[in-house]
Write the structure tokens for this entry.
Amino acid sequence: MLFRFREFRIYQDSLAFRKLIYKISQNFPKDELYCLVSQIKRAVNSIVLNIAEGSNRSSDLDFRRFLYHSLTSLEEVVACLDIALDEEYISKEKHTELLVKAEELGKQLIAFINKLT
């Protein structure tokens, strides 16, 4: 089936996480537009796009590789959130809230990877 990734909960949840990241990055300083904002947006998009791209591969092994790419992109988003907290672009509360969402997404990715083993 084409576009089967759209049925995966991990895909839908990664889209929701993407929306949250885009929303908070709007409040970052304008001088971060081509640095931190660009980086966090590319990383969060990579989570979504790797799930989609990997879903139509010819083997579970290939799909797993793309899910690992999603996981490493999630880790990159978390690092960007740490920087945003350190620079005081986001509050400690917002940082914690987003880390909880990131951890949930990470657990889903790991479970999906393990399911394909």
